[in-house]
Amino acid sequence: MQKEDLLKILAPVGQSHLLRFWDELTPAQRQNLSSQITSQDWTKIMSWVRQALGNEQQPIPFSQLQPAPYLPLQPRNETEKKLYADARERGRQLLSGGMVAAFTVAGGQGTRLGFDGPKGTFSFTPLRQASLFQFFAEGIARYQEKYQIVFPWYIMTSPANDLPTRQFFEQHAFFGLEPKNVFFLQQGMLPAFDFQGKALLAEKDSLALSANGHGGSFAALHDSGALQDMQRRGIRYLSYWQVDNPLVTLFDPLFLGLHEIKASEMSSRALIKRDSMEKLGHFCLLDGKTMIVEYSDMPLELLQQTDSEQQLRFRAGSPAIHILNCDFIQRLTADQPDFQPHRADKKVPCIAADGSVVTPAKPNAIKLEFFLFDAITLAKNPLILATDREEQFAPIKNATGEDSPQTCREALLARSLRWLQEAGVTVPCQQDGKAPLKLEISPRLAVEPSDLVPHVQRLSALRPGSELLLE
């Protein structure tokens, strides 16, 4: 595309400065910049930027905020017992009927872990050093065996890690899965802007681009052809999780069954917060609509507020585990509803007007990110179901301390020991605060305690201090 054509796009939105170095660029560099510029919907983006800069986003009326109701982990009465039993049966039917697929958001790098590569390639298990991707792939394979059906796996990458992710799967022969049933899609990118609303250049021939957040999932599913692939396969529901939480139950019959019985378009698991300051988004109601309010946005008074039973009033937090209707995603991407990005002030290296490189010491720009959970407000009959933290949540986010590989391994070991006990295996007692043995159970063997029952005989004499790998 010629400079004049690009100016027709940029001038009306006040971004002509992006071509200030055009005459210095080689043909290949011009092609690169041109393709980046033409891939953006500048009119829509500039409306978001104006809102972000003008703080036009409506403030939350916290005085009107209420806790969102949620279904408990265990049924409280006979009515709920029947509902949960019916839901489990319906969930199994959905799974065996090939109506469910997996969707993993995996666009992040392992930077916070001190790891150079896509986070999904990070090795974390104690004995095999299996990666997150391997762990999930083995689980999917086991579910396919249990339900005698294929579960397609849709993996959202980012431009920064898409190629390394694909290469990782190829190098490991897709961990035994059929490549045709693993679908990679890239999340979108949005330009960064300075505080005057001018898009920044990362290089003379390149915009300063950043991933558009996990809320970009919907557009990525649509634009990549993934939704069409699901339609061809007869998929109606997506089981959604983030790549850094290996304890998640990939396909939960109860959760799926409740989702369909309640005619929900987007269902969510909820963690009951450990304390008022745990960094989880809060399930809330505003004007009768379900929404998630970030912990950083909640006033301290509400964070610490308790009810008549001295429990936290806003205690249901989001671990980012969802069921999504494919028809709902189709509607969101077709109708282009009022789905707004959030502003984040960041330090963005860029090229100054004189061509020099700027490495900022403090935030100099805004990035726009969509949050997937904002779609809950747009969904019909959103359902929230409590989950068991010890069974389903041990994210790997930090190199050390809370939510680290070490805390994840500890949670995984504790769960494995519980599963063995539930299957009828005698487990050595813990001594001096230390785990009784090193243990790793591959999801290829077991995704729930009952899967271990056929193996009880060979596990009848676990010795303290031993190592045991079950795969």
At a glance:
This protein is an alpha/beta fold. Helices cover 29% and strands 18% of the residues.
Mean pLDDT, as a whole number?
93
Taken together, the total number of domains comes to 2
**Ranges with pLDDT <50 over ≥5 residues?**
none
- Spell out the CATH superfamily of the largest domain: Spore Coat Polysaccharide Biosynthesis Protein SpsA, Chain A
According to DSSP, the number of beta strands is 21
CATH structural class of the largest domain: Alpha Beta
Task: Explain this structure.
There is one protein chain. By secondary structure, the chain is an alpha/beta fold. It folds into two domains: 40-59 and 69-274 and 316-398, Spore Coat Polysaccharide Biosynthesis Protein SpsA, Chain A (Alpha-Beta Complex); 404-471, no CATH class. It is built from 13 helices and 21 strands. It has helices spanning 3-10, 27-38, 42-53, 78-96, 132-147, 162-171, 217-223, 226-233, 253-261, 300-304, 326-335, 389-392, 405-422; strands spanning 66-67, 100-105, 153-157, 182-186, 189-191, 201-203, 206-207, 209-211, 237-242, 266-272, 281-286, 289-293, 316-318, 322-325, 342-346, 350-351, 357-358, 365-369, 383-386, 438-441, 467-470. Strands 1, 2, 3, 4, 9, 10, 11, 12, 13, 14 and 19 form an eleven-stranded mixed beta sheet that branches. The chain has a two-stranded antiparallel sheet with strand order 5-8. The longest helix is centred in the first third of the chain and has 19 residues, at 78-96. It is globular and about 75 Å long. The mean pLDDT is 93.
